[in-house]
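Service request form, structural biology core

Requester: graduate student, group of Dr. S.
Request type: structure prediction, single chain
Budget code: on file
Notes: please return the result as structure tokens.

Sequence provided:
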Amino acid sequence: MATSIQITYNGQNEGTLKATENVAVGETGFKPYEMVLGGLGACLNYTFQDVLDKMRTEVGGVEYDITGIKRDEVPTLLKQVIVNITVTGVEASKQKKVEKAWQKATEYCSMYETLSRIAEMKPTLTFK
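Core staff response, request fulfilled:
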């Protein structure tokens, strides 16, 4: 079973998280894996923004589409996490710099590192 969320940021650290179905624990709130994936997206964005700031590079916006696929056996830990990000507002001449910042973000993000200990991480970056 896969759980997906989408997070859209304004190029800084303000954004919106959307889940694939009604978000609930019982009847209200986020489901546990939506919180984990949302936490991963937020941590990645903070780390990515920090690296971009240090590189003096700006982006127009970043959208995260994160999917977690769990193992069938109990406990049903994550076996794979697919992290697709789309970055907007980047001139072609600055794309390599943004790619390097994204690579660094996946190396320095503590949530990404933590999840990589139990799951295969599959990050991708697309420019729009």
